[in-house]
Prior knowledge:
Blueprint: H1 17-21, E1 26-31, H2 36-44, H3 68-73, H4 76-89, E2 94-99, H5 101-106, H6 110-116, E3 124-128, H7 136-151, E4 164-168, H8 178-191, E5 195-197, H9 206-210, E6 217-221, H10 227-237, E7 241-244, H11 250-264, H12 269-294, E8 303-308, H13 310-322, E9 327-333, H14 339-350, E10 361-364, H15 370-376, E11 386-389, H16 391-400, E12 404-406, H17 423-443, H18 451-456
Parallel strand pairs: 1-2, 2-3, 4-5, 4-6, 6-7, 8-9, 8-11, 9-10, 11-12
Helix pairs in contact: 7-10, 11-12, 11-13, 11-17, 12-17
The structure holds iron/sulfur cluster.
Amino acid sequence: MTECSEQQRVACAIGGAYTVLAIERALPILHSGPGCLQNSGGVLGRFNGGQSGVSYPDSIIPSTNFCDKDVVFGAEDRLRRLVKKCLEYYRADMFFLVAGCGSEIVGDDIEEVAAEFAGGPVPVLYARLPGFKGNNLWGHAQVLNVLIDQYLKHLPRAEVKPGRVNVLGVVPYFDSFWMATLEELEKMLRALGLDPNVIYGRGKGVEALKKIPEAAFNLVLSPWTDLDTAEKLQDVFGTPYFHYPCLPIGPTETAKFVRALAAYAALDQKKAEDYIREGEDRYYFYVKNAVKVYSGGAQTPKRFFINSSAAQALSLTRFLVNDWGMTPLKIFITDDVPEVHKERITGELRAVESADALNFDIRFTRDGGLCDVEIGKEAFTFRKACLFGTCWDQLTANNRQLPFVPVSAPYGDAMIGDTTYLGYNGALVFIRDLYRDMTQKVLGSGIVARLEDAAGH
Ligand code: SF4
């Protein structure tokens, strides 16, 4: 073994059930061990910013509670009885049977169980998500595959609606800020003259799912997640897709994204430029104010480390370098990016307005603790560098007195609420969060214990 994994930053495949939980009134029914969803919840649920299911709390999801006896004899019949009871007691628009490791090893036929409920008042789908097959991002992709294969393909053929666009790329729950990000994105796309279709979150649900085949195009906003789904939707429904590699944060990337999208979708150029101008006006008004304070006592360290998912690393790096004049030192990407995407993502990370773009390290690793080890090799104490990552990295930041903002799962045992770092406003929120942490450390009201260290650097 050449690499020792520590600090869980992805869940196992059964965490794909959280993608079902993100669809309003879609209920997963687990055919797995009693603690399986709880395990994923450590990264995706409560400890990722105090999140739970959109319609059903993740702590009460029905499960067959697969146990040791079932590993010998199976528990198909118990699953059958559970589905019957769920149909009776839950008011859901869709049921989704989810098999974990135990039931997959013993070979329970969840397809057959789901088939017994076909043609009923509510769709009953199934997905095999054993943890030995992959992580929660793999599980997420399987859930979307299932929605296409077992549900969307069987709907009557839909007319394509001009301007309709499905929003893909944001992985619900794994992206700690997904809810507010999607809300904000929806507003942005509407302002540009599009008709966005988001399937996750408040007021969406199965009705939004049904609209997927009507889209004029799919928008994938991520370095790699959901690209496979967009390709599949292209094969199945002939829907083309527009891939933009990151969620834009700040004026440079937001303007770049808006112009690229406007060119792709032949949008009204004036609307696009008006959107950019208004966003920039507001952003720079507040930034000018912030800069007066920043240039006083608590200056932002110019260098930073990131230990996060590829999506957050790319969005943040572009913002911090292009708009905030900072320089990355090392970037650790911990969400097990498939080999085929690594070179392209490395190129996207280096495509920033910095003379040092070729000098910083980019590491794809499953070992979340590696960042701490690397930081420990150099004397990065207060005002020398910032750190952006997960709640695990908060420990490193506290120990080394580095300004810190959590940006990736697991975010920590705090309420995210409607926070997002997307666009112009999101960039201001990020600056606010960074400044808050810096000032707490300067004043000793946070976790800096050794003020003499802060004063000395
Ligand atoms: S790895 Fe398997 S047994 Fe463990 S939590 Fe995931 S699905 Fe359950």
